[in-house]
Design goal:
3 helices, 51% strand, mainly beta, 15% helix, 210 residues, elongated, Porin, single chain
Length: 210
C-alpha cells in the first residue's frame, strides 16, 4: 500500500467529519431551547448545480512533515449558508498522521461555529452555536506479519462529539485491499448517544479510488 492512497483516505475522512459536525438535528432538548431560541441550525453539504447565495466559501489545509513518518496539519473552512448570506458556518481543526511500515495512527480535533437568527429576540439578532469533537484511529497492517492474510488491516477508532447531539463511538473493523485502489471494509460501530437512542450497526463497504 502506498502513502498516496492512504492520503486519499485521510482526506475523505476529514470531509466526512466536517459533514458530521455541519449536519445536525433541528431540535434539541427543552433546556437548550430555552437558552438558544430554536434548535441547532442545520447546514447541509450536498452536491448541487447551483448556489443559494452570492457568498463564496473558502478554506484549505496546510500540513508540515516533522519527521519522515509524522505529519501535522491544520484546516479552515468558512462560508455563508443562508439565502441572504447573513449566516456563516466556520470550521477549523487540527489533525495528525503517523505512519510506519506496520501501523497508521491518525486523529483530528475539529470545532465549528454556526450562526442563526434568534427567534426570541424582537430584532433579528444573530447568535452563534459552537460545537466540537475529535477522533483517533489506529490501523495495524497484520498482513505484514502474517503474509497468508495478504493486504489485511485491523482498524480501531474512538470518536466523540460534544455539546449539541453529544455522542461517543467505538468502531472495530477489518479492511482487505484487493489492490492499491480498491478495498473491502467490514466494521462494527457502537454509538452511545447522550440524549437519545444508542446505535449499534454492522457495515460492509466496497470502496474504489480513482
Amino acid at each position: 500500500m502506498e502513502l498516496e492512497e492512504e492520503g486519499a483516505v485521510i482526506d475523505e475522512d476529514h470531509l466526512e467529519l466536517v459533514r458530521k459536525f455541519a449536519s445536525v438535528p433541528n431540535s434539541v432538548n427543552e433546556d437548550e431551547e430555552e437558552g438558544h431560541g430554536g434548535g441547532f441550525p442545520e447546514v447541509e453539504f450536498e452536491a448541487t448545480s447551483g448556489d443559494n447565495n452570492a457568498n463564496k466559501a473558502f478554506g484549505g489545509r496546510v500540513a508540515v512533515a516533522l519527521l519522515p513518518t509524522l505529519e501535522i496539519g491544520t484546516s479552515y473552512y468558512q462560508g455563508a449558508y443562508d439565502e441572504s448570506g447573513a449566516l456563516d458556518f466556520v470550521a477549523n481543526g487540527v489533525d495528525f498522521n503517523l505512519l510506519n511500515e506496520h501501523f497508521l495512527l491518525r486523529g483530528e480535533y475539529i470545532k465549528t461555529k454556526t450562526d442563526a437568527f434568534d427567534d426570541d429576540s424582537e430584532r433579528p439578532d444573530i447568535e452563534t452555536f459552537e460545537r466540537d469533537g475529535w477522533f483517533v484511529q489506529g490501523t495495524v497492517f497484520i498482513g505484514h506479519a502474517l503474509p497468508m492474510l495478504g493486504s489485511t488491516e485491523i482498524v480501531i477508532e474512538r470518536s466523540e462529539t460534544n455539546k449539541f447531539a453529544e455522542a461517543k463511538r467505538w468502531m472495530f473493523g477489518i479492511n482487505y485491499w484487493l489492490d492499491p485502489r480498491s478495498v473491502i471494509k467490514v466494521g462494527y460501530e457502537n454509538t452511545n448517544v447522550f440524549d437519545g437512542e444508542d446505535d449499534k450497526r454492522l457495515a460492509v463497504q466496497f470502496s474504489y479510488g480513482f
